[in-house]
Write a structure and sequence with these properties.
2 copies of one chain form a homodimer.
Chain A (H helix, E strand, L loop, with lengths): L1 H25 L3 E7 L5 H11 L5 E7 L4 H9 L2 E6 L8 H10 L7 E5 L16 E7 L6 H4 L1 H5 L3 E5 L11 H11 L4 E4 L8 H16 L2
Parallel strand pairs in A: 1-4, 1-5, 2-3, 2-4, 5-6, 6-7
Helix pairs in contact in A: 1-4, 2-3, 2-8
């Protein structure tokens, strides 16, 4: 009974995710879902991307349990943001994205960046219809996180190792981290970023540009 | 329908949690549930407590999505540990604790420390039967976490601000953090710890000792 209900929820979600992706495809909008622990720096990475890609039209959907703090930060960085407060729910789902998309103007939008609720477990189970899913993992969390939270690192298209400016102050084995990531998802693209020094943001932005070009060129 | 099912799940869980707590009371075992984000340092704090309280009999239940890494670390620190792998589930629940308790020897045990799955959202909704719940939040996660994940910080008995040795390297407003904690749960006890320097561990251990004494003295 419980299993059946869960299957229904996931089935309904997958159908909505597919409809979302068809909408994004039809409008030439590259959608990317950013997942990660609380405090991994998802919003900071998005702020940096918004500031760097100032010739690209970006919209951002912010998912949080509470507050509109992150949407405010994104708007200050220069992109229109739509805040979803889940009111306790631990992840975004595809119908939430469908409703958000109905309420934001996506005319001439190139990139739709979606920040999921800070949680390394639950968001991985719910596809949103994004073309790519990136996991943001930060140096202070430790180099063992892929092994301990394997689903997110397996069901993703890329990993952003953030807060690399803190490497001198922490015991973190960079090689071990990427080895674990590679074992779980060999195809995932790898970025190393710092939102303090700006390192690695250009590579992430370049990747987003290329993916968008590829989408619109068919 | 969905709401009814959720109510049933929580009702069943609460009944099991109450039975767990009655068992702990009858055996003079103080049980404490440690919640927090992935990488907040829950295991490191428990290692420090186990090493410091070497005149107290401690057992540890480790909750993880995958791996037995944390149980191994605790056993190396000197306490018997029991690993629960949730296999994808994002929190522990009371029946998992009931089953674990049946399989570990709790004779002459003073403290049962339970490390929940790394997740600042879901574990808060599921009581385990512990006498106290402590949230471990770390400096690199940022001073805004209580505001953004209010349920865990409201439904707890104490907050451990961990990794305070990193304060010189990060922009973190300590006063703001504790103000937000105090607004959500004015009764919560506050600890500031570093598992690198050992700062604050003695205070946490003293609090655990006192709570255990109070429990066994009735």
């Amino acid at each position: 009974m419980k299993i059946e209900l869960m299957t229904n929820i996931l089935g309904d979600n997958d159908a909505a995710a597919q409809a979302n992706q068809e909408f994004f495809d039809a409008h030439g909008i590259l959608a990317v879902d950013f997942m990660g622990s609380p405090g991994s720096g998802k919003t900071s990475v998005l702020e940096q991307v918004v500031r760097s890609l100032d010739d690209v039209t970006i919209k951002v959907i912010e998912g949080d349990v509470a507050t509109a703090n992150d949407a405010r930060r994104i708007e200050e960085a220069g992109a229109e943001a739509f805040q979803i407060n889940t009111g306790g729910m631990c992840h975004l789902n595809a119908p939430m994205i469908t409703r958000a998309v109905e309420r934001i103007s996506l005319a001439a939008t190139d990139l739709l960046l979606i920040e999921n609720v800070g949680n390394l477990v639950c968001p991985a189970a719910f596809k949103l219809g994004a073309h790519f899913r990136l996991v943001v993992s930060s140096v202070p969390e430790g180099d063992d996180k892929p092994e301990k939270y394997p689903v997110a690192f397996r069901d993703c298209d890329g990993v952003i190792l953030n807060k690399i400016d803190l490497l001198p102050h922490l015991s973190f084995d960079v090689e071990r981290f990427w080895d674990l990531c590679g074992q779980l998802q060999p195809q995932a693209v790898q970025f190393s970023t710092s939102c303090v020094t700006g390192e690695g943001i250009a590579q992430l932005c370049q990747w987003l540009r290329e993916r968008h070009s590829k989408l619109v060129s068919g």
